[in-house]
């Protein structure tokens, strides 16, 4: 069967409860189809000379009926639907022909030509199902589209469908007018219910839906999602981050968030860059961000506050949540892959290693009051990895402090600039030459500094982008470590 663009297939959802469905074939493919048919409550009859073990079990449990032997048209008696899954074209054709003669819909696995009915690729969220078909033109394309849709909607959508199903009669009684009902559903879909379900707060979600139902005037019910955008490679965004970005009305993003990540957000969402300028008044900017988030949420917007890396690692995410909490705004947090983890991975530097590094310290060279005050003596010991955020300026001081407290001058270091992005650069060398390395290669922000024996692995294990720059010949992993020991 060839569905031309002018004759698309007709989609249909079948109620198979208690209805007889014949499956011809007793192998793995048949077993998969039978599982789905049983889920839908069908009375499954399987015809085949032999059954695979899973099907034998179902047959022994009385959940399916086995007709043993080669296909015969009589098997189709009183069936509503037949699926031919034998892998043998001759048998499949005989099944399709017999079904056609009796006007029974026949699906033939992997054979759109013979089939009068095709099974769609589907996405299932509770009672809500999305079926995708390419009309037999490209089942693989349909499957890829399905994967995209899978990534967009999580289980909360199915839970919302169930919740609305339970309220169906009440909704119709309360809102007999179709356009009022439409407006209600749109408010529910855009309101906080999905986010509440995602957080596991079912009762609150039911109340939110209830509130919309009993409202003459819809109230604004905005919220804020504090989302980690990762280091730049959009592939490192989490599925949840992607979903939240798809639901956003407004996105407040830092400068650090890459364009590739922003490109994944809902097209009609408003984007506002709220990044801090270098040398600007950071506290004033931060206060403005708080005020903006609160004002937008109070106006009923779904706000995404998108930050580079993870919002809780040097991201002032805590302060932003405190402000939201104080203003009574609902929020959620979606973690992201932080720069230390991402840069290390993309530079081939294991942050811990059973032989070379027993601890990892995540540090910043800056603090609220200027220079960060670390326990330098503790950080100077060998066998620990230091990951410095904002490590480009003040490298001389950093090196001097560590050397003064006894960290070995030949301790390997790596500077990772634009980690995980197409323009990533990795510069490697020793602690003693760190500031010179940065100057020689004109390393600029954003860059992450890794100090520790493991940094030497970049020369050996790099896999992303260009090979590391710097005096690589002196830095094979074994050598500096042997000296350090
Ligand atoms: N919340 C972020 C960190 C913000 S602080 C996170 O979890 O990653 C900003 C610092 O992070 C930068 O100065 C730099 O040191 C580091 N950084 C962030 N993204 C980076 C990237 N793609 N490459 C290198 N360093 C990065």
Q: Could you say which structural class the secondary elements and strand pairing correspond to? A: alpha/beta
Shape: globular
Mean pLDDT: 90
Helix count equals: 19
Radius of gyration: 30 Å
The CATH topology label of the largest domain is Methyltransferase, Cobalt-precorrin-4 Transmethylase, Domain 2
CATH superfamily of the largest domain: Tetrapyrrole methylase, C-terminal domain
Amount of helix: 25-40%
Proportion of residues in β-strands: 15-25%
Low-confidence stretches: 472-485
Largest sheet: 5 strands, parallel
Bound molecules: S-adenosyl-L-homocysteine
Oligomer class: single chain
Let me know the number of strands: 19
Describe the protein's architecture and organization:
- This protein has 485 residues and is of the alpha/beta class.
- The protein has four domains: 20-119, NAD(P)-binding Rossmann-like Domain (Rossmann fold, 3-Layer(aba) Sandwich); 156-213; 223-337, Tetrapyrrole methylase, N-terminal domain (Cobalt-precorrin-4 Transmethylase, domain 1), CATH 3.40.1010.10; 340-461, Tetrapyrrole methylase, C-terminal domain (Methyltransferase, Cobalt-precorrin-4 Transmethylase, Domain 2), CATH 3.30.950.
- It has helices at 28-39, 53-60, 89-102, 139-152, 156-166, 168-174, 178-190, 193-198, 202-213, 239-247, 259-262, 282-298, 317-327, 339-347, 376-379, 395-404, 434-440, 457-461, 478-484; strands at 20-24, 43-48, 65-68, 81-84, 105-108, 121-125, 128-132, 223-228, 250-253, 270-273, 302-307, 330-334, 359-364, 366-367, 370-371, 384-389, 412-417, 425-430, 447-451.
- Helix 12 (282-298) crosses helix 13.
- Bound molecules: S-adenosyl-L-homocysteine.
- S-adenosyl-L-homocysteine binds at residues 231-232, 256, 307-310, 313-315, 338-339, 343, 389-391, 416, 418-421, 445-448.
């Amino acid at each position: 069967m060839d569905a031309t663009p002018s004759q698309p297939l007709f989609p249909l959802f079948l109620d198979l409860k208690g209805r007889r469905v014949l499956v011809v074939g007793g192998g793995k493919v048949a077993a998969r189809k039978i599982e789905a048919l049983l889920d839908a409550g069908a009375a499954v009859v399987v015809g085949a000379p032999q059954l695979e073990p899973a099907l034998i079990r179902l047959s022994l449990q009385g959940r399916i009926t086995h007709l043993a032997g080669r296909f015969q048209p009589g098997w189709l008696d009183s069936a509503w639907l037949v699926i031919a899954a034998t892998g043998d074209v001759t048998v499949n054709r005989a099944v399709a022909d017999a079904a056609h003669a009796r006007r029974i819909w026949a699906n033939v696995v992997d054979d759109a030509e013979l089939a009068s009915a095709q099974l769609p690729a589907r996405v299932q969220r509770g009672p809500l199902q999305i079926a995708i078909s390419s009309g037999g033109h490209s089942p693989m394309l349909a499957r890829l589209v399905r994967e995209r849709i899978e990534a967009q909607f999580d289980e909360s959508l199915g839970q919302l469908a169930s919740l609305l199903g339970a309220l169906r009669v009440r909704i119709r009684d309360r809102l007999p007018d179709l356009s009022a009902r439409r407006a209600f559903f749109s408010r529910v879909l855009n309101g906080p219910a999905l986010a509440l379900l995602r957080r596991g707060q079912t009762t609150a979600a039911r109340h939110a839906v209830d509130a919309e139902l009993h409202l003459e005037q819809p109230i604004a019910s905005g919220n804020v999602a504090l989302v980690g955008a990762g280091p730049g490679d959009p592939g490192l965004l989490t599925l949840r981050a992607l979903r939240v970005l798809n639901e956003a009305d407004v996105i407040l993003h830092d400068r650090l968030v890459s364009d590739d990540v922003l490109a994944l957000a809902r097209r009609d969402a408003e984007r506002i860059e709220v990044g801090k300028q270098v040398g600007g008044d950071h506290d004033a900017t931060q206060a403005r961000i708080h005020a903006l988030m609160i004002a937008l949420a109070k106006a009923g917007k779904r706000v995404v506050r998108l930050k580079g890396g993870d919002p809780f690692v040097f991201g002032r995410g805590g302060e932003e949540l405190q402000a939201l909490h104080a203003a009574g705004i609902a929020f959620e947090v979606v973690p992201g892959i932080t720069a230390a983890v991402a840069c290390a991975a993309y530079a081939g530097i294991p942050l811990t290693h059973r032989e070379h590094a027993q601890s990892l310290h995540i540090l910043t060279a800056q603090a609220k009051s200027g220079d960060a005050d670390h326990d330098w003596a503790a950080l100077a010991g060998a066998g620990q990895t230091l990951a410095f955020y904002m490590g480009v300026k003040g490298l001389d001081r950093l090196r001097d402090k560590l050397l003064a407290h006894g960290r070995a001058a030949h301790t390997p270091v790596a500077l990772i600039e634009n980690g995980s992005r197409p323009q990533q650069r990795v510069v490697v060398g020793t602690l003693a030459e760190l500031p010179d390395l940065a100057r020689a290669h004109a390393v600029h922000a954003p860059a992450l500094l890794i100090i520790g024996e493991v940094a030497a692995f970049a020369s050996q294990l790099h896999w992303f982008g260009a090979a590391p720059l710097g005096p690589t010949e002196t830095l094979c992993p074994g050598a500096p470590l042997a000296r350090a020991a």
